[in-house]
């Protein structure tokens, strides 16, 4: 590997390199990306500050018919309920129109929130390192560079203990249908794998968004839990409708991971609107 290329997701100075680019978007997904770009402008107009892609599509690893379209939208002011409803309607329309994707997820924030001091090592880092500019002025220009250190670990995933009771409520409220359980298994599996990875990220000294690589990195430092995270990584890509998996997350893996995270990195600073 050339010395000029990122190593373990880092640039030559040891900062996390921005992943993804529009050039990496697979050909099959370019029509839906173009449609999303045009319709975001139609919906939000001059209130739109910027928009971004993130996830497997801009990384070039998306699978046709299996991967979702992930968007982050920054408005010039705080989003209202009508803005969120418009984002949901856009996602539903794109999902129905383009069989290449399996759902659309849209994060909606104000420019001020994304650039706020409390979010510097959470949402700010997310924009600067994991998001690919699609429209508007790139907020990464106003954000620092990031190293895979304990501060970043704490502020990104140090709130798992607060999330677990909410997860349990969602599991209890879900029906036994595949439509209800599979998305929960996918979401919680991915969240736990990412949390396990960021637990060890400073020691591993790098960044990856690949769930399998995350699980392997975690297993290097916690071999007694490695099998659980490898299984979660697999379910993050190919979820099953298994309530027992979800209960194991909130009864065993999740509580252990939350406690170990707090011991190693501390607890995420509270946010005005909660985790």
Brief overview:
The chain is α+β, with helices and mostly antiparallel strands and 275 residues long. 52% of the residues lie in helices and 10% in strands.
Blueprint of the fold:
Elements: H1 30-44, E1 48-54, H2 56-59, E2 69-75, H3 81-97, E3 104-110, H4 111-114, H5 123-130, E4 131-136, H6 150-157, H7 160-173, H8 178-204, H9 211-221, H10 226-237, H11 243-265
Parallel strand pairs: 2-3
Antiparallel strand pairs: 1-2, 1-4
Helix pairs in contact: 1-3, 6-8, 6-11, 7-8, 7-11, 8-9, 8-10, 8-11, 9-10
Describe this structure in words.
The structure is a single chain. By secondary structure, the protein is an alpha+beta fold. The protein is 52% helix and 10% strand. It is built from eleven helices and four strands, in the order H-E-H-E-H-E-H-H-E-H-H-H-H-H-H. Strands 3-2-1-4 form a four-stranded mixed sheet. Strand 2, helix 3 and strand 3 form a beta-alpha-beta unit. Helix 1 runs antiparallel to helix 3. The longest helix has 27 residues.
Characteristics of this structure?
alpha+beta; 4 strands; globular; 4-stranded mixed beta sheet; disordered N terminus; 275 residues
